[in-house]
């Protein structure tokens, strides 16, 4: 999935659009999402998703898979928000909040009306925020995103750390995939006990190979006269779109009017 996201960032239909324009658009909507009410957050999610799927031509199945992962995380925390318990002697305190419940010993376990509202608010805010982040991830290559952050005055040391982390994600995924396929070909997971042993070996080998790869990267950087800053070259062949800028500004103003109206 990570490799596919990186490929889409280089091949999407908004590749020619200036990364500054796309990044400012996403940041502005992300700020509005933090203060908006759920209906406006839903509109933001739909609007940004349409930019990602329709304008950038990101496959809908891939985009829905990313959204599904976020919803799955939300579902794991939803029961903790909705299901509450209280001492049976204090039932009068939750008469307006409890929807349905039952007695369990000296406690009353119930479904909270406020918890459902809170869970719904978290879901809409999370989906709207992730829509903005997915728009950036799927339309701006990571190296160009770091270059844009540098032009905005982002500290160089942080962008270099992010670049290294991004590179080692692919190294870890590739190494783990090679080891796992080698173990699978030797029936390394045919039983639970053997699977646990194979998994421990995989983690150990992954750590060893990662450290070895890090050593090789350090030696290669030192041999090339690394001075503490990564220089990533890319041709600056972008265009500023007045049409998209006008559409973004009008849409943003409408969202603010709906929020405060």
TrEMBL record:
Coiled coil: none annotated. It comes from the Bacteria. Keywords: Cell membrane, Membrane, Transmembrane, Transmembrane helix. Pfam families: CbiQ. The chain crosses the membrane at residues 23-47, 67-86, 122-140, 152-169. The keyword Transport does not apply. It is found in: Cell membrane. It is a multi-pass membrane protein. Its main location: membrane. InterPro entries: ABC/ECF_trnsptr_transmembrane, Cobalt_transport_CbiQ, ECF_CbiQ. NCBIfam families: ECF_T_CbiQ. PANTHER family: COBALT TRANSPORT PROTEIN CBIQ (PTHR43723). This is Cobalt ECF transporter T component CbiQ. It comes from Nodularia spumigena UHCC 0060.
């Amino acid at each position: 999935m990570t490799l596919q996201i990186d490929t889409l960032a280089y091949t999407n239909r908004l590749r020619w659009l200036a990364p500054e324009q796309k990044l400012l658009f996403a940041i502005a909507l992300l700020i509005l999402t933090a203060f908006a009410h759920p209906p406006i957050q839903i509109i933001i999610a739909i609007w940004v998703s349409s930019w990602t799927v329709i304008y950038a031509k990101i496959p809908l199945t891939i985009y829905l898979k990313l959204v599904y992962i976020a919803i799955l995380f939300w579902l794991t925390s939803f029961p903790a928000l909705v299901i509450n318990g209280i001492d049976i002697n204090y039932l009068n305190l939750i008469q307006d909040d409890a929807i349905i419940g039952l007695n369990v010993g000296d406690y009353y376990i119930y479904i909270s009306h406020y918890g459902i509202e809170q869970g719904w608010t978290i879901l809409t805010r999370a989906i709207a925020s992730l829509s903005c982040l997915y728009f950036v991830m799927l339309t701006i290559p990571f190296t160009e995103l770091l270059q844009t952050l540098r032009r905005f005055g982002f500290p160089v040391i942080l962008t270099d750390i992010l670049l290294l982390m991004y590179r080692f994600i692919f190294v870890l995924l590739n190494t783990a995939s090679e080891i796992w396929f080698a173990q699978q070909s030797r029936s390394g997971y045919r039983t639970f006990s053997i699977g646990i042993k194979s998994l421990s070996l995989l983690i150990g080998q992954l750590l060893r190979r990662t450290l070895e790869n890090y050593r090789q990267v350090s030696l290669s950087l030192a041999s090339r006269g690394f001075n503490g800053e990564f220089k990533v070259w890319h041709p600056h062949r972008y265009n500023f779109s007045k049409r998209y800028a006008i559409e973004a500004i009008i849409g943003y103003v409408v969202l603010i009017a709906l929020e405060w109206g």
